[in-house]
Amino acid sequence: MRMDAGALRLTLGYLLLATLWVLLSDRLLAGLDLSVERLEQLQSLKGVAFVAVTGIWLYLLLHCHALAREQSWLKLKANTERLNLALDAAQDGLWDWDPGRRQVFFSPSYAALLGLSQAELGTTREAWAARLHPDDCENALHALLALDRHGHYQDTHRLRHRDGSYRWILARGRLLLDGQGQPYRFLGIASDITQRRADEESLRQAAAVFDATHEGVLVTDRDQVVVHVNPAFTRITGYSAEEMLGQQPSLLKSGRHDSAFYHALWNALQSRGAWSGEVWNRRKSGEIYPQWQSIRAIRDESGQISHYVAVFSDISVLKRSQNELDYLAHHDPLCNLPNRLLFTERVEHALERASPEQPGAVLLIDLDHFKHINESLGHNVGDLLLKAVGERFSGLLSKGMTLARLGGDEFGLLCEHCQDPAQAAGVAQRLLSCLGKPYQLNGHELYLSASIGIRLFPKDSDSLERVLRDADSALFKAKSSGRESYAFYAEELTEFARLRIELVSALHHALEHDELRVHYQPLHDLADGALIGAEALVRWQHPQRGLVPPGEFIPVAEDSGLIGAIDAWVLEQACRQMVRWQAQAQEQVPRFVAVNVSSRLFGREGLDRQVAKVLNDTGLDPGRLELEVTESAIMANPDAALGLLHRLRALGVRLAIDDFGTGYSSLARLKRLPVHKLKLDQSFVRGLPHDADDVAITRAVVALGHSLELKVLAEGIEQPEQVKFLRQIGCDYGQGYHFGRPQPAVAPAPGPQPVCCSSGHD
Ligand code: C2E
Ligand code: MG
Ligand code: MG
């Protein structure tokens, strides 16, 4: 039993005081010299007083002690209650081991952690140790050795629950030592951390997944500030975590999506809490790439969005291989051309878009006798030949055309813009011509021809099947007509186109073999009948057909692009002729030569440079050249025309508007044109002077021309009364059979008079 120091001090003090009282009071009484009887009375009184005083003192002492005990008991009770409540709230258990008595106190809540009652758990360390997981026994039992220097203890171990499962217990406590440094108590609390461990474990797993996944992960807070990215994010985007944290994901925007796209994305996130789809983003390197992205909104306990998590994968490789697959599915591997599938898709689209104003054509091309080449020279040579044919055809393609290998020796050509049969026939002719040259393959010289079937579209109730079937029957027609030719689905088109094509090649021939001629028609002053100039008009001296008028070949030349060469040739001839006339220094020669400029050339760049060059080459004074431009050519592109006319005028040449009255000029524009002359179209002159409409129009044009300070020339004057009428209304000049037909320029001398005086040619 331990000695209580306070109680000892109290007892010793009492003993001392009582002894002193006994000794001193007796001595005091003896010194009073009292009678024995009195002394005995006082002795008794003193004894009674002593007992009374000590009795009161003892009472007070006991009372104080009882009070103190009660207070400390109340305090203890409150503390115990608090402790129990705290342990209860924390769902923790209390353990208290008394090493001396080899007893352990386990609180009911400790036992409850294992699904047991206090009694079931027992009060010995052995009973407790029996519940330890075999793997944790050693560590748990030696945990005392692992105390820190303050005697603090912490250990995690598994204990078997009533249901047989093991629960992870975190025990924390302290070893208390007595005065001699001997342990006398070891106590602490224990908590069930099974759930926490499981949570930590799944967090660890999630973190490992987060780090190891191939998918990029980006987490932002509710304000879209990036708070987390994973290594895959860095690998895909090139941005490190440090570069991204604190930034907005918009840093990755590629600019490929419009605001409506992002609007829809945010709408989905706000309403459904998730969005997934394809997004094009920009890597740090600047490269734009596609990614498949899923975004989820994460909500906190109060239901408010706290974070957004985006998980994405780079699908550029996938896309590439998809594109490659797509390419393979739609292309012929031998010729590297679109295959039948893609061809029919394109034809279908073209049919959807086509309109009478925007017609097109489908051409099916079949190589003649290709089978023989394959059979006699082998498939290798056949393949090489097909490749070579594909390359030659490809060289002819222009915008809006799709060439495809449909299989075997059959090719298809879709022309999305094909104005008329002639254009389609021209394409077919070029395809046939390009095959014409021999092929050198594996030491063989091979000749090849083809047949082509043409189907124009749109027609009523067109369908893909119908167009292809018609083209196929046209191809059959071409083959049966002796191969190496083309045929239209409709017979008359074939003939029409054939003639046009023949005409074009004959015109080529004509240009090369000098079959073109220039005739000149005189232009007269109506006031005095004097010759003022001559208009150069082209003719074709055809070996079989004789002299062909321009009306028959100029439109074809314009469509085929030959007009440039023809007009340049006429311009040069006319200028040279004018120089020659000037050199004659006679009265009866034209003072200027008028040359027609095709409307097709009028819109083109460089006409002014071309004219300047011819003037320079021939040495003709620019004032002696008049260029005639039709009214419709100007009105087709008035702004470009205005610029060109100004540049031509700056050269010093004269300008006339040809066929005036047929082109619906706007007066406002006419006013601004830098021209010198209006040539009233012959269709209005024909009815003069009797047709009231022609009279009215002629009067109006003359008045208009004069009000704009322009000279007016009337074309196609055939009758003297037309001259008379025109003179009366003040028309300045005239041209027509009445004055003279177009005819070749005559040699100066000796010989007939020049162009202007003669009549009855053409
Ligand atoms: P244009 O420039 O209006 O030429 C006048 C046309 O009227 C000429 O026809 C001429 O022969 C014809 N003509 C002249 N007087 C009379 C007449 O009294 N009665 C009738 N019925 N006709 C008459 P042509 O030579 O057949 O030329 C036709 C058109 O061909 C020309 O009309 C011009 O637009 C075009 N043309 C002629 N030569 C050329 C050329 O070198 N280049 C270009 N681009 N076009 C040309
Ligand atoms: Mg003319
Ligand atoms: Mg004319």
TrEMBL record:
<dbReference type="InterPro" id="IPR000700">
    <property type="entry name" value="PAS-assoc_C"/>
</dbReference>
<dbReference type="InterPro" id="IPR013655">
    <property type="entry name" value="PAS_fold_3"/>
</dbReference>
<dbReference type="Pfam" id="PF00990">
    <property type="entry name" value="GGDEF"/>
</dbReference>
<dbReference type="InterPro" id="IPR029787">
    <property type="entry name" value="Nucleotide_cyclase"/>
</dbReference>
<dbReference type="InterPro" id="IPR001633">
    <property type="entry name" value="EAL_dom"/>
</dbReference>
<dbReference type="Pfam" id="PF13426">
    <property type="entry name" value="PAS_9"/>
</dbReference>
<protein>
    <submittedName>
        <fullName>Bifunctional diguanylate cyclase/phosphodiesterase</fullName>
    </submittedName>
</protein>
<dbReference type="InterPro" id="IPR043128">
    <property type="entry name" value="Rev_trsase/Diguanyl_cyclase"/>
</dbReference>
<dbReference type="InterPro" id="IPR035965">
    <property type="entry name" value="PAS-like_dom_sf"/>
</dbReference>
<dbReference type="InterPro" id="IPR052155">
    <property type="entry name" value="Biofilm_reg_signaling"/>
</dbReference>
<feature type="domain" description="GGDEF">
    <location>
        <begin position="358"/>
        <end position="491"/>
    </location>
</feature>
<feature type="domain" description="PAS">
    <location>
        <begin position="79"/>
        <end position="136"/>
    </location>
</feature>
<feature type="domain" description="PAS">
    <location>
        <begin position="202"/>
        <end position="248"/>
    </location>
</feature>
<feature type="domain" description="PAC">
    <location>
        <begin position="275"/>
        <end position="327"/>
    </location>
</feature>
<feature type="domain" description="PAC">
    <location>
        <begin position="153"/>
        <end position="205"/>
    </location>
</feature>
<feature type="domain" description="EAL">
    <location>
        <begin position="500"/>
        <end position="756"/>
    </location>
</feature>
<dbReference type="InterPro" id="IPR035919">
    <property type="entry name" value="EAL_sf"/>
</dbReference>
<dbReference type="InterPro" id="IPR001610">
    <property type="entry name" value="PAC"/>
</dbReference>
<dbReference type="Pfam" id="PF00563">
    <property type="entry name" value="EAL"/>
</dbReference>
<dbReference type="InterPro" id="IPR000160">
    <property type="entry name" value="GGDEF_dom"/>
</dbReference>
<dbReference type="InterPro" id="IPR000014">
    <property type="entry name" value="PAS"/>
</dbReference>
<dbReference type="Pfam" id="PF08447">
    <property type="entry name" value="PAS_3"/>
</dbReference>
